[in-house]
Design goal:
One of its GO terms (cellular component) is extracellular space. InterPro entries: Serpin_CS (IPR023795), Serpin_dom (IPR023796), Serpin_fam (IPR000215), Serpin_sf (IPR036186), Serpin_sf_1 (IPR042178), Serpin_sf_2 (IPR042185). It holds the Pfam family Serpin. Belongs to the serpin family. This protein folds into 2 domains: 286 residues, Antithrombin, subunit I, domain 2 (Antithrombin, Chain I, domain 2); 117 residues, Alpha-1-antitrypsin, domain 1 (Roll), CATH 2.30.39. Helix content is 26%, strand content 35%. The chain has 11 helices and 16 strands. Strands 2, 6, 7, 8, 9, 10, 14, 15 and 16 form a 9-stranded mixed β-sheet that branches. Strands 1, 3, 4, 5, 11, 12 and 13 form a 7-stranded mixed β-sheet that branches. The two termini are 41 Å apart.
């Protein structure tokens, strides 16, 4: 039998939303708080790493980012670390031996698990419960579901952990009818992602025994909107030789800003209504690789501590980018290897000895406009039998740049805009 992980992420902007200029004390305090990575948030260990922690260089969010960049050179990148780390944490509860150790180490934890592993799962539990509370200023919802073949016995302990820790429903699914199963799963995902993910699962076959789906939906408005009348077509330099025309938004205001001389980049923070911020990172010409290589949790920590309010004439393109990644080809570079091979040990999930993860897919699209940003993500695992003005500095994002959406839950989305 095979376990297929299918991840999907969609970010998009609502059109014509009304936004207000409000720089509250909460916002000023927020942008100076450290936003931990998705895994660090779940483990609640952002302030001090335990003595048993994995080596500091094993930072899942940014290691994965660099692996995706290396596998997709000069292309747009967008993904949700949270939407990927959560199902990996879930499947680790059914993994044993080196399979489990590799997953934990890949997530930046000790291979031995223990209290650190317990805090990982309980941290995700707290996060899921928190997101069930209604919010007026932004929408951030997370959820998980297991589509299970009734004839395959899944261990009660695993199902109990899925229900109690990850609030995951178990839905009986007839994989003997692959088309019906595929429609059932895709309809569910489309509903939970507000219709933005419509074809998460493809090419199911009758040997599948489980599809594990984890989704995230994010929608927020800028604290201060861009005036659509100020948006004009301008050049975007994809490479020194390639120039494309893009709709360039413009707004002069005070922004959180810093110049990182070590990484040769400028960083601008745009707050959303609610407790989230978008970071736009503009490397100096020819220094993109330096910025990519130096991006890590310590760097984000320094940025949020050193941000200062600066009057800027900001030019930022409206853009739409998307990506699709076969993570079973990427995660082995982070040490998570056995899970996708015949060596997988998922004995904590079922007593069947021949189950492995056959596929782990992450799909994403992001749209940013004058109003704000909306985002959704879903992760799935399938198991089956083997077979400027004076006084205002001008900052123009007219060449490839990096972006991140962060809040106290961590890095929700991370990407690279190579060609809007």
């Amino acid at each position: 039998m095979q376990l297929r992980l299918l991840l999907c992420l969609v970010l998009f902007s609502p059109q014509g939303s009304s936004l207000h200029h409000q720089h509250s004390w909460r916002t000023k305090k927020r942008v100076r708080e450290l936003p931990p990575t998705a895994t660090a948030t779940a483990t609640a260990t952002a302030t001090a790493a335990p003595a048993t922690a994995a080596p500091a260089h094993r930072n899942f969010t940014f290691d994965l980012f660099r692996a995706l960049v290396a596998a997709n050179p000069n292309q747009n990148i967008i993904f949700s670390p949270l939407s990927i780390s959560m199902p990996l944490a879930m499947i680790s509860l059914g993994a044993r031996a080196s399979t489990k150790e590799q997953i934990l180490e890949g997530l930046g934890l000790s291979a031995q698990g223990g209290p650190e592993e317990d805090e990982l799962h309980h941290g995700f539990h707290r996060l899921l419960q928190e997101q069930r509370r209604p919010r007026e200023d932004l929408q951030l919802s997370l959820g998980n579901v297991l589509f299970i073949r009734p004839a395959v016995p899944v261990r009660d302990a695993f199902l109990s952990a899925m229900r109690t820790l990850y609030l995951a429903d178990a839905v009986p699914t007839n994989f003997k009818d692959p088309e019906a199963a595929q429609k059932q799963i895709n309809d569910y995902v489309a509903k939970e992602t507000k219709g933005k993910i419509v074809d998460l699962v493809k090419d199911l076959d009758s040997s599948e025994v489980m599809v594990m789906v984890s989704y995230i939906f994010f929608k927020a408005k800028w604290e201060t909107r861009f005036d659509p009348q100020s948006t004009l077509k301008q050049d975007f330099h994809v490479t020194p030789e390639t120039v494309v025309q893009v709709p360039m938004m413009k707004r002069e205001d005070e922004y959180d800003y810093l110049l990182d001389r070590r990484l040769s980049c400028r960083v601008v923070g745009l707050p959303y209504q609610g407790n989230a911020t978008a970071l736009f990172i503009l490397p100096s010409e020819g220094r993109m690789h330096k910025a990519e290589a130096g991006l890590d949790q310590e760097t984000l920590t320094k940025w949020f501590k050193k941000f200062t309010k600066r009057k800027l004439q900001l030019y930022l393109p409206k853009f739409s980018i998307e990506g699709s990644y076969q993570l079973e080809k990427i995660l082995p570079k982070l040490g998570i290897r056995d899970l996708f091979t015949s060596h997988a040990d998922l004995g904590g999930l079922t007593n069947h000895s021949n189950i492995q993860v056959s596929e782990m897919v992450h799909k994403a699209v992001v749209e940013v406009d004058e109003s704000g940003t909306q985002a959704a993500a879903a992760t799935g695992m399938v198991l089956g039998f083997r077979s400027a003005r004076m006084g205002a500095q001008v900052v123009v994002f007219n060449r490839p740049f990096l972006m991140a959406i962060v809040n106290p839950e961590g890095v929700l989305f991370l990407g690279k805009v190579a060609r809007p």
